[in-house]
Design goal:
Elements: H1 10-30, H2 39-43, H3 45-57, H4 61-70
C-alpha cells in the first residue's frame, strides 16, 4: 500500500476560515478558561509536561537551516 502526502480539501479549508470567529466568541463567552494560556497544565499536566519537553528538544530540518543561514 502506497502512502503519499495528504490531499488538501477545499471544502474543509473554506469551512475552517468561515466558522471560526463566531464559534470562538460563543465558546469564550460560555467558558471562562477557553483560549487562555496554561490551561493544559490544569487539565492534563502529564501531557502538558510531555509537550513542553518535546517542543524544546525536537527540531526540523527547516529550523536547522534557518539557524545556519541567519548569522
Amino acid at each position: 500500500m502506497k502512502i503519499g502526502p495528504r490531499k488538501p480539501s477545499l471544502k474543509r479549508s473554506l469551512k475552517a476560515r468561515t466558522t471560526g470567529k463566531l464559534k470562538r466568541k460563543v465558546k469564550s463567552s460560555i467558558n471562562p478558561f477557553y483560549g487562555k494560556k496554561g490551561i493544559g497544565w490544569v487539565r492534563n499536566p502529564k501531557k502538558a509536561a510531555y509537550n513542553k519537553v518535546y517542543n524544546k528538544t525536537s527540531f526540523s530540518v527547516v529550523d536547522l537551516l534557518k539557524k545556519l543561514f541567519k548569522g
